[in-house]
């Protein structure tokens, strides 16, 4: 493969060609998943078309047993073959982008397709878009790994696969591309955007070839009858934001509840399916992806009480399905909740003001509003609804309502339905992988004394000292050790050839420039920002901006080394959390080269103290990878406070681990 790659002098052209391949694969994957869902739904309920009518013709026991049997099959498949297939898919893709250089195991696509099709087809209250995104992303990652591409190119192909998944799912290529850059990649750069757009278009064309110009929803004509309707749309935006937050909170509450449950993990989906089946007997609208129920809301088919009941029932059913370990997405449930919420607001508005648009119009806008609030991706939500309607009239109220719902949701809950899952694992997602890590690591571990000058040092001493060191930036200090300026090689070069004449006449204060510095509480990202603005390889550190008391200097190459070390540490931590061979490390696990991984009980002397205060790296030469608190396992940061009963997994040399155990009595 390297020989093939070498023939392409322009890497961008290679990425474009590979994005076409990924687009074809993503389109085929989407079509395959849909057909598999159709087959399993028919097998489970004796019908697929007019699903709600079919449910009235089958016995009650079948409505209950179908989701339970589906869960019984899905649980072992996920547990034993690919745990990444559990849940709604998109956070797992984001995790791979953030922590694994975009590398996803090839088997994930296959396992996710099977598990999701069974979960949805047997009645699980989840969507198919999330799985299709994960399948497309997995295929993109596999292509990138096959061609031995570098990290950024693999991540671009992962984003291409995700874009192709959404595009094929909704017949919406623009929304697919924007979803990928807004949620998966977080980067609107042309280099990344171009192959993503191509992959999204190709995936849509492939899906249309096999299924025709498939329309996910039959959308009614839309019109904004009066500008005064912005008032009920404002109300809709507020309610949609609150519904979205309720959905997020309920979903992760039940996920946490099932994780703490003593029930075996591979059995939990069966129990979740049984509960969903019981709900479905009395309220069948919650079964499966729910597109038929959404279409009913768009065409004013449901009375107000049904629309109002749809909201809590769908939240509970979806949260149980996913919380218990089922496989499926949250995109379609968000659309469902939006259609029900908007439809209810529309029914009330139309009854009070007959000149207002129909309830279906409000259901359409509500779909975008709840999606925008749950995903915190309003641009994607707006474009999806626009591509579904292809009606410019919907844009104004849609944008207005989506922004309001997003503002409400973010004001209450900082994390989206996708990023909260990462945060609960101890992973902060910022603008990208680099910033996420660099912003969490303080500079105190890389501060060195460095070479510095006092303001009265003469030129001869300065030049002689500079010639004997590799340092290129030199702090200039007052007699009281306060930073007053810096000297760079450029400053010194300006007087270097006049060294003999000015040797005793020029002092450091004369040629110093204004100080560039960091404070002790700065993080590595602050250091890299200064390096980027000033193009300097060393940065002085002071206690604070008021005292300017000199503390030392940080070297950019040390920051890069620490960043690479933090990546390796987090990858190992992630392996401890997700891989079965690391599940029990209480007796220790040899990692080679004298390094050992071991789980220890937190000593009493560590309780109620932060990792920063304990300085375990400096005091014991050990790294804390993860904290186990009850049934919760997460990656800590410097501010994490240890609690009584916690266990932590450390990595280091066996001798250092032994010293910690002896000294602290663990």
Structure description:
With 666 residues, this protein is an alpha+beta fold. The chain folds into four domains: 9-211, Clc chloride channel; 227-424, Orthogonal Bundle (Clc chloride channel), CATH 1.10.3080; 443-559, CBS-domain (Roll), CATH 3.10.580; 579-664, Regulator of K+ conductance, C-terminal domain (Alpha-Beta Plaits). It is 60% helix and 8% strand. The chain is built from 29 helices and twelve strands. Helix 21 links the parallel strand 2 and strand 3. Helix 2 (11-45) runs antiparallel to helix 7, helix 9 (173-185) packs antiparallel against helix 17 and helix 16 packs antiparallel against helix 17. The longest helix has 35 residues, at 11-45. It is globular, with a radius of gyration of 29 Å.
Attribute tags:
single chain, about 675 residues, alpha+beta, Clc chloride channel, CBS-domain, 4 domains, five-stranded antiparallel sheet, four-stranded mixed sheet, about 10% strand, globular
Summary, kept brief:
60% of the residues lie in helices and 8% in strands.
Total separate domains:
4
Approximately what portion of the residues adopt beta-strand conformation?
Answer: 5-15%
Average pLDDT works out at 83
DSSP E strands, number:
12
Q: Low-confidence runs (pLDDT<50, min 5 residues)?
A: 430-434
Largest sheet report: 5 strands, antiparallel
User: How are strands sequenced across the largest beta sheet?
Assistant: 8-9-12-10-11
Query: How much helix, percentage-wise, in residues?
Result: 55-70%
CATH topology of the largest domain: Clc chloride channel
CATH architecture of the largest domain: Orthogonal Bundle
Oligomer: single chain
How many helices in DSSP terms?
A: 29
CATH superfamily of the largest domain: Clc chloride channel
Helix and strand content put the structural class at alpha+beta
Distance, first to last CA: 51 Å
CATH class of the largest domain: Mainly Alpha
**Whole-number radius of gyration?**
29 Å
Shape: globular
């Amino acid at each position: 493969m390297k020989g093939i790659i070498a023939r392409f002098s322009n890497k961008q052209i290679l990425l474009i060609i590979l994005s076409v391949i990924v687009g074809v694969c993503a389109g085929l994957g989407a079509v395959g998943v849909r057909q598999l869902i159709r087959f399993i739904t028919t097998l489970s309920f004796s019908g697929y078309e007019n699903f709600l009518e079919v449910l009235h013709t089958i016995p009650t026991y079948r409505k209950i047993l179908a989701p339970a049997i589906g869960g019984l099959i899905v649980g072992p498949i996920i547990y034993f073959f690919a745990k990444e297939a559990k849940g709604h898919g998109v956070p797992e893709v984001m995790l791979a982008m953030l922590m694994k250089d975009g590398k996803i195991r090839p088997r994930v696509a296959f396992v996710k397709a099977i598990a999701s099709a069974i979960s949805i087809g047997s009645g699980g209250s989840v969507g198919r878009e999330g799985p299709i995104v994960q399948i497309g992303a997995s295929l993109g990652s596999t292509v990138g790994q096959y061609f031995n591409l570098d990290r950024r190119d693999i991540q671009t192909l992962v984003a291409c696969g995700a874009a192709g998944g959404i595009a094929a799912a909704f017949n919406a290529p623009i929304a697919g591309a924007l979803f990928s850059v807004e949620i998966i990649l977080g980067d609107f750069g042309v280099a990344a955007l171009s192959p993503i757009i191509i992959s999204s278009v190709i995936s849509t064309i492939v899906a249309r070839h096999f299924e025709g110009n498939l329309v996910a929803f039959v959308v009614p004509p839309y019109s904004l009858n009066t500008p005064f309707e912005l008032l009920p749309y404002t109300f809709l935006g507020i309610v949609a934001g609150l519904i979205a937050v309720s959905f997020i909170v309920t979903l992760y509450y039940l996920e946490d509840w099932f994780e703490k449950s003593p029930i075996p993990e591979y059995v939990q989906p069966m129990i979740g399916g049984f509960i969903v089946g019981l709900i479905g007997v009395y309220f069948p609208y919650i079964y499966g992806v729910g597109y038929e129920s959404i279409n009913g809301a768009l065409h004013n088919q449901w009375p107000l009480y049904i629309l109002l009941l749809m909201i809590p029932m769908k939240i509970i059913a979806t949260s149980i399905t996913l919380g218990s370990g089922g496989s499926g997405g949250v995109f379609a449930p968000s659309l469902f909740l939006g259609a029900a919420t908007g439809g209810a607001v529309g029914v009330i508005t139309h009854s009070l003001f007959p000149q207002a648009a129909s309830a279906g119009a409000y259901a359409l806008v509500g779909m975008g509003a709840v999606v925008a609030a749950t995903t915190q991706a309003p641009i994607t939500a707006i474009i999806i609804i626009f591509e579904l309607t292809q009606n410019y009239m919907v844009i104004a109220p849609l944008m207005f309502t989506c922004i309001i719902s997003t503002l409400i949701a973010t004001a209450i809950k900082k994390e989206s339905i996708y990023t909260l899952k990462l945060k609960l694992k101890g992973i902060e997602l910022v603008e990208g992988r680099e910033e996420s890590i660099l912003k969490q690591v303080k500079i105190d571990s890389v501060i060195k004394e460095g070479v510095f000058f006092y303001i009265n040092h003469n030129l001869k001493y300065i030049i002689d000292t500079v010639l004997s060191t590799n340092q290129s930036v030199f702090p200039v200090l007052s007699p009281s050790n306060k930073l007053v300026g810096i000297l760079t090689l450029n400053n010194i070069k300006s007087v270097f050839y006049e060294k003999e004449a000015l040797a005793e006449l020029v002092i450091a204060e004369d040629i110093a420039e204004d100080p560039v510095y960091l404070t002790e509480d700065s993080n590595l990202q602050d250091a890299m920002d200064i390096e980027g603005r000033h193009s300097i390889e060393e940065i002085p550190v002071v206690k604070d901006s008021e005292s300017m008391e000199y503390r030392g200097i940080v070297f950019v190459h040390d920051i890069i080394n620490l960043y690479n070390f933090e990546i390796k540490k987090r990858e190992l931590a992630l392996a401890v959390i997700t891989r079965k061979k690391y599940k029990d490390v209480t007796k220790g696990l040899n990692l080679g080269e004298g390094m050992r991984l071991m789980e220890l009980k937190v000593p009493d002397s560590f309780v109620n103290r932060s990792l920063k205060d304990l300085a375990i790296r400096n005091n014991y030469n050990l790294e804390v990878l993860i904290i186990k608190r009850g049934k919760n396992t997460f990656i800590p940061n410097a501010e994490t406070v240890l609690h009584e009963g916690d266990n932590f997994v450390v990595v280091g040399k066996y001798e250092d681990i032994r010293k910690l155990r002896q000294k602290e009595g663990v």
